[in-house]
């Protein structure tokens, strides 16, 4: 019975984050010539994490907290020493889809802050921003103005669809024409080439897979509970027999529910992947 409770908890946790892409904001580092203190670097990291949440929070992205990152780091791993490909490797180790890190330095009489964004699955460099100011507070203000463009690279792309013009709007007797961009109105629309959105199909497929797997585990639990019931000897009371039988029936019901939900979801989602 305990196995079933754990299984239900796993379904809730996995389904809630199955399609969120994880963004890890690693701790801000600094070059030796930078006067930035540890507390100032922590402040920049926290503000960068807040900016990422403001831009990506409503678009199926999960911003990993400092605690999440620390718990998932391999033993002895030091984030502050990682740059470039090592930064991407760190992102993979903590199961992040994208990784971001800022570096504070100095150029001439100004402080500089460079923030880089990488995709961990391909090690692809997606972009960066650079801020310059005499004070840390100024770096923060300039960073806030530029992070929208940086994190905006992760948002869905849009296409411009110009209004269609009929033949009545065009004078075919003229070989020259003038163009005024103010006369053209465009509609910004998101591209969706599927009848059923892919995120719905993936949701159904993932939940179906999890439920079916839980059904398999429940079936094993049924066999185990039934074996215990069959092995009970004459020394057990009638109440003990009834309690064990209730456990058998409970696990059977759970198994049937898991199969009844999981198998149809798998069939439907697989059909959508093939025909949609």
Your description of this structure?
Helices cover 51% and strands 18% of the residues. The protein is built from 7 helices and 8 strands. The strands form 2 sheets. Strands 1, 2, 3, 4, 5 and 6 form a 6-stranded mixed β-sheet that branches. The chain has a two-stranded antiparallel ribbon with strand order 7-8. Residues 12-17, 166-181 and 183-192 have low confidence and may be disordered.
CATH topology title of the largest domain: Rossmann fold
CATH architecture of the largest domain: 3-Layer(aba) Sandwich
Major beta sheet summary: 6 strands, mixed
What CATH first level of the largest domain would be assigned?
Answer: Alpha Beta
The arrangement of helices and strands along the chain is: HEEHEHHEEEHEEHH
Briefly note the structural class of the backbone.
alpha/beta
Q: State the total count of DSSP E strands.
A: 8
**Termini separation:** 40 Å
Net shape:
elongated
What is the compact description of this entry?
This protein is of the alpha/beta class. Helices cover 51% and strands 18% of the residues. The chain has helices at residues 2-17, 38-56, 66-72, 85-93, 136-152, 198-231, 238-275; strands spanning 21-25, 29-30, 61-64, 98-107, 110-119, 124-133, 158-162, 186-190.
Keywords:
six-stranded mixed sheet, single chain, alpha/beta, Rossmann fold, 2 domains, 276 residues, 7 helices
């Amino acid at each position: 019975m305990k196995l079933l409770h754990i299984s239900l908890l796993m379904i809730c946790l996995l389904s809630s984050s199955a399609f969120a892409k994880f963004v890890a904001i690693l701790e801000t580092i600094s070059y030796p010539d930078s006067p930035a203190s540890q507390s100032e670097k922590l402040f920049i990291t926290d503000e960068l994490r807040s900016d990422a949440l403001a831009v990506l929070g409503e678009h199926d992205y999960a911003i990993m907290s400092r605690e999440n990152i620390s718990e998932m780091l391999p033993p002895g791993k030091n984030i502050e020493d990682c740059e470039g490909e090592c930064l991407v490797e760190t992102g993979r180790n903590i199961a992040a889809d994208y990784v971001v890190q800022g570096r504070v330095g100095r150029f001439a009489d100004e402080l500089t802050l460079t923030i880089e964004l990488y995709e961990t699955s391909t090690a692809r460099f997606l972009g960066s921003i650079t801020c310059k100011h005499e004070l840390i507070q100024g770096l923060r203000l300039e960073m806030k103005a530029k992070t929208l463009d940086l994190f905006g690279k992760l948002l869905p792309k849009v296409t411009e669809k110009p209004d269609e013009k009929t033949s009545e709007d065009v004078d075919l007797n003229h070989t020259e024409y003038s163009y005024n961009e103010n006369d053209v109105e465009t509609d910004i629309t998101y591209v969706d080439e599927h009848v059923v959105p892919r995120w719905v199909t993936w949701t159904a497929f993932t939940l179906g897979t999890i439920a079916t797997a839980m059904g398999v585990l429940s079936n094993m639990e049924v066999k185990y509970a039934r074996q215990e019931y069959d092995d009970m000897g004459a020394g057990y009371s009638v109440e003990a027999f009834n309690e064990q039988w209730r456990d058998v029936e409970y696990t059977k019901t759970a198994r049937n529910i898991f199969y009844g939900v999981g198998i149809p979801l798998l069939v439907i989602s697989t059909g959508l992947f093939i025909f949609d």
